[in-house]
């Protein structure tokens, strides 16, 4: 959604296509972890605004 996220995904998929299997596991959970952090931050912000 944001350009930095798109860049990150492009780098991850670029690594996957180049065939280096070392960073595969990290590449799979890294975007998920970043997404989870963003979602949690949004939930906290909404909760703070409602009180």
What does this entry look like structurally?
This protein is mainly alpha-helical and 51 residues long. It has one domain (3-50). It is built from two helices and no strands.
Question: How many helices does DSSP assign?
Answer: 2
The succession of helices and strands, N to C, reads HH
| Shape designation | elongated
Structural class assignment: mainly alpha
Major sheet characteristics = none
Present the secondary structure layout.
Layout: H1 3-18, H2 24-50
Search tags:
51 residues; mainly alpha; 2 helices; 0% strand
Write a short abstract of this structure.
The chain is 84% helix and 0% strand.
């Amino acid at each position: 959604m944001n350009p930095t996220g798109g860049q990150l995904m492009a780098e991850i998929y670029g690594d996957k296509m180049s065939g280096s299997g070392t960073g595969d596991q990290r590449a799979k959970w890294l975007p998920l972890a970043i997404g989870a952090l963003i979602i949690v931050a949004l939930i906290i912000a909404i909760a703070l605004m409602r009180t």
